[in-house]
């Protein structure tokens, strides 16, 4: 699945509910999921880490949808390596 497909699935599955919740609440949920990912990274199993990582990606896609942004377009800035020094690996 590519990022555009992911955004479309998230929009179809949760878009109406996410829009009703609003951007501030979505950011709060995303922050909570990042915290859960941090905890799973430190103390969790691989399965827990995958679960929390998927939640972070899904909430990020939801936020992008609500903002009218494309994850593919946002991440294109890293397609050639470091967006500051333009090197792989980063030389900053």
UniProtKB/TrEMBL annotation:
InterPro entries (alphabetical): MazG-like_dom
Database matches in SUPFAM superfamilies: all-alpha NTP pyrophosphatases
Domain NTP pyrophosphohydrolase MazG-like: 25-79
Source species, domain of life: Bacteria
Protein name per the record: Pyrophosphohydrolase
Species of origin: Acidiferrimicrobium australe
Taxonomic lineage: Bacteria, Bacillati, Actinomycetota, Acidimicrobiia, Acidimicrobiales
């Amino acid at each position: 699945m590519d990022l555009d497909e992911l955004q479309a699935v998230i929009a179809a599955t949760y878009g109406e509910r996410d829009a009703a919740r609003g951007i501030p609440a979505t950011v709060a949920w995303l922050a909570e999921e990042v915290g859960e990912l941090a905890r799973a990274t430190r103390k969790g199993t691989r399965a827990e880490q995958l679960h929390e990582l998927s939640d972070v990606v899904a909430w990020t896609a939801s936020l992008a949808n609500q903002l009218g942004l494309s994850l593919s377009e946002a991440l294109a800035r890293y397609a050639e390596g470091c967006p500051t020094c333009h090197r792989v690996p980063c030389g900053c």
